[in-house]
Specification:
By secondary structure, the chain is of the alpha/beta class. The chain has two domains: 3-188, 3-Layer(aba) Sandwich (Aspartate Aminotransferase, domain 2); 191-283, Aspartate Aminotransferase, domain 1 (Alpha-Beta Complex). The protein is 40% helix and 19% strand. The protein is built from nine helices and ten strands. The chain has a seven-stranded mixed β-sheet. Strand 2, helix 2 (39-46) and strand 3 (50-54) form a beta-alpha-beta unit. Helix 1 packs across helix 5 and helix 8 (233-243) crosses helix 9. It is globular, with a radius of gyration of 19 Å. The chain starts with 5 loop residues before the first strand and ends with a helix.
């Protein structure tokens, strides 16, 4: 890949702002998941377009066939989060290819891979497909595995001609000098990256074992968070853990509560496990 295939943005929120400005016009449709990163739908609506949300599968996964079926003559962009936020599920290379082969080349296909570093080999690496599909763009960020969310550095890669359109709408001075320096240093610190990925993998396994032993339903994850579809108990669980000094994310899906737990440091995860069952039993 060459330098003209990349554009740097003010975090991935900033990248999606550029995508909207560059490519979405009133009346255009943007296809995305029913339960996914909310910025995709917001981008479409801000630009006067329409978000077409594809229903999740029964396993809380993004439905690749559903994405293909949702594309119409009005579709300008498909945004596919892999691994998906907030479910943590991943999609393999064959299914990504299937969508790219089925979708017209005039439709832009954006892969959001914010959490890709945490995923195993079963989750597709979109960068390996860039030179095969001129309508494909891949987004990544320094906010997750690199731990630099506060610096706001994200990037998008794709065909050089597509990148030219993004540069036309890109704000000047979009990334500060300290942020750029931090991102460069992060890329060089391979030891930190490797240790962070390994710790997240090991600690996630601890959570899997804990939830399985206690018959707590969870969604296996390709990220550094785990989703618990706990329904009515979710609000009380969130509030009870907060009283113990533990913050978890409360979300809603089809009117039911779900909890997203970020995998933290080992001592933080131990504290959560120590407090969880007492709070959960009270919440039920």
């Amino acid at each position: 890949m060459t330098a003209d295939q990349f554009v740097i943005g003010n975090g991935l929120d900033g990248v999606f702002t550029m995508l909207g400005r560059a490519f979405i016009e009133p009346g255009d449709e943007v296809v995305c998941g029913e339960l996914t990163f909310s910025v995709y739908a917001e981008m479409a609506e801000i630009m006067g377009g329409k978000a077409v949300k594809v229903p999740m599968t029964d396993n809380m996964e993004l439905d690749t066939d559903g994405f293909i079926d949702a594309v119409t003559g009005k579709t300008r962009m498909v945004v596919f989060c892999n691994p998906n936020n907030p479910t943590g599920t991943g999609t393999g290379i064959n299914d990504i290819r299937k969508m790219l082969d089925a979708i017209p080349e005039k439709v832009l296909f954006v892969l959001d891979e914010a959490y890709i570093e945490f995923a195993d080999e079963n989750t597709a690496d979109g960068l390996t497909l860039l030179n095969e599909y001129p309508n494909l763009m891949v987004c990544r960020t320094f906010s997750k595995v690199y731990g630099l969310a506060g610096l706001r550095v994200g990037w998008i890669a794709g065909d050089a001609e597509l990148m030219k359109y993004l540069y036309k709408v890109r704000e000047p001075y979009v990334v500060s000098v300290p942020a750029a320096a931090g991102a460069e240093a992060a890329l060089e610190d391979i030891v930190f990256l490797t240790e962070s990925i390994e710790m997240a993998k090991n600690e996630k396994k601890r959570f899997y074992d804990f939830f399985s032993t206690n018959d707590i339903k969870f969604i296996p994850s390709q990220t550094n968070f785990i989703l618990l579809p706990l329904g009515d108990a979710s609000v009380r669980l969130r509030d009870g853990l907060l009283e113990e000094g533990i913050i978890v994310r409360l979300l809603r899906f089809r009117g039911k509560g779900i909890i997203r737990i970020t995998v933290g440091l080992p001592e933080e995860n131990t504290l959560l496990m120590e407090k969880f069952m007492g709070v959960y039993e009270a919440a039920e």
